[in-house]
Structure formats: C-alpha cells, structure tokens
Amino acid sequence: MAISIKSAREIELMRESCKLLADVFQNLEHAIKPGMSTKDIDVMGEKMIRAHGCIPNFLNYNGYPASICVSVNEEVVHGIPRADHILQEGDIVSLDAGLIYKGYHSDMARTFGVGEISKEAQDLIDRTKQSFFEGVKMAREGNHLYDISRAIDLYISQFGYGIVTDLVGHGIGTKLHEDPQIPNFAQRRRGPKLQSGMTLAVEPMINMGRSDVEWLDDDWTVVSEDGSLSAHYENTILITDGDPEILTLY
Ligand code: MF3
Ligand code: CO
C-alpha cells in the first residue's frame, strides 16, 4: 500500500489528536508512584482519553485488553495492566498509548523511572530518547525512510545495547498502523523517499543487554530474552518541507 499524504485539514486533525495524547502522558508521568498498580495507570489513562472526548485506539486492537500498554523493567512493550502488578521504587515503566480524535490516530510511548532509579537505568532511558532525536534529524523531505533507521542504529550501537528488531515503527493516520514499517536498525536499501504530509510513528525499543525478545504466555507481553531492562520512546511526527514537527512532544 502507498504511504498516505495528509491534506492540510488532516494535518490539523493529527495535530489536535497528538496534542490531546501528549496531555494525557504528561498527567500520567506525574501520577506514577511506587505502590500503584499497572492497572491503576490504565484506568487513569483511559479516563483522561475519554474526558477529551476521544477513543483509546489500543483497546480491543487485535484483542488487546487495555487502553494503555504498561511494560515494567525487562518487559519491552505490550505489557497488560494488572491490579496485582505493583510498581516498586527503582523500577522503570514504559507507557505506550494512543487515541482517536475525529477519526485521526495518535500514538506515543515513554519510559519513566519509579522513584529513584539506578544510573544505568537512567542512561538507558536517556539514550533511547536521544536515539529518537538522532533518527528524526533525518526525517526530512527528500531523504529516504531508512536514513532514520540508520541514524538510530548508529547512535545506539556505541553503547553496546540491543536494538529490538522484531518490532518497528509505522505510518499513522486514519488507522493506527499504516505503511510504511520503520525499523530502528540499519537497512541495506534506502527505503521510500520522505514527502511533506507523511505522518509517522518513530519508536525505538532498546534493551540494555541483547536484542533478542520473546513473547509471554499471555500472547502480548514482549520481554527481553536475557531479562535485561528495556526502554521505549515514541512520537508521532509530521514530515514537512522544512524541519519535522514532533506532534506528540511535551
Ligand atoms: N504499541 C504499538 C505501537 O506503538 C501498538 C500497540 S497495539 C496494542 O504501534 F494492541 F498492543 F495495543
Ligand atoms: Co506505535
């Protein structure tokens, strides 16, 4: 399928969808405390999304049973919120969520520390975030899609971390997942040319140890195979004829 180019009207709707999602994340970030359950985060997040008059787009997506993916420590992505999973001081927690505003999807993820965390864990979070920005420097009209992938890979590789290769970023718009797929690691090809009006979800997932992942028996939760900590950083962005716009930034 071709990569959709959004009209000026669609871009306005994407901007609003993303702004509302960023607001939800900002509130969730401030709410995270040791002692709360991963389910508490999901309940709060869903309430905030609905209070904006929006629909949580993850809920029931291919049967996913919650609105916010909550992944703790070695969980990479798609953790299922549970009332008996209590956040502890020193944990790191990745939240991934999206919403639909007037038919337009937004999607973002962040990893937060719970209370005081180790320097190693904070470095992983900071470098995962920075890898997104290294990738996005390349997100310019006329460049190729995999210029983004290569920049993320080059930046992360210096730390000896494992880039998750089983999951990728994606186009986004009237559907949560549109073409193209966006790997977070270098490709031999250059990929499609970037054009103004493309909206993309760029989302590096980085393990402190090896890159291998496995799926738990709940069929959703992705964990690092070696049990090492994992971080995730995602924004929905807009390609323009100049600098990219990071629509979910806060
Ligand atoms: N986290 C995925 C993404 O960012 C989407 C999650 S789908 C769900 O593209 F079903 F797990 F919610
Ligand atoms: Co995504």
Fold and architecture overview:
The structure is a single chain. With 250 residues, this protein is α+β, with helices and mostly antiparallel strands. The chain has a single domain, classed as Alpha-Beta Complex (Creatine Amidinohydrolase). The chain has 4 helices and 15 strands. It has a 5-stranded antiparallel beta sheet, sandwiched between helices. It is globular, with a radius of gyration of 17 Å. The structure holds 2-amino-4-trifluoromethylsulfanyl-butyric acid and cobalt (II) ion (CO). The site of cobalt (II) ion has 5 residues, from loops. Cobalt (II) ion (CO) binds at residues 107, 170, 201, 203, 234.
User: Given the C-alpha coordinates, what overall shape results?
Assistant: globular
Count of discrete domains = 1
* Low-pLDDT residue intervals, each spanning 5 or more residues: none
Q: How would a crystallographer describe the biggest sheet?
A: 5 strands, antiparallel
Query: Can you tell me the CATH topology?
Result: Creatine Amidinohydrolase
Q: What radius of gyration results from the CA coordinates?
A: 17 Å
The CATH homology group name: Creatinase/methionine aminopeptidase superfamily
Strand residue percentage: 15-25%
Ligands in the structure? 2-amino-4-trifluoromethylsulfanyl-butyric acid, cobalt (II) ion
Head-to-tail CA distance between termini: 32 Å
Secondary structure: number of strands: 15
Structural class: alpha+beta
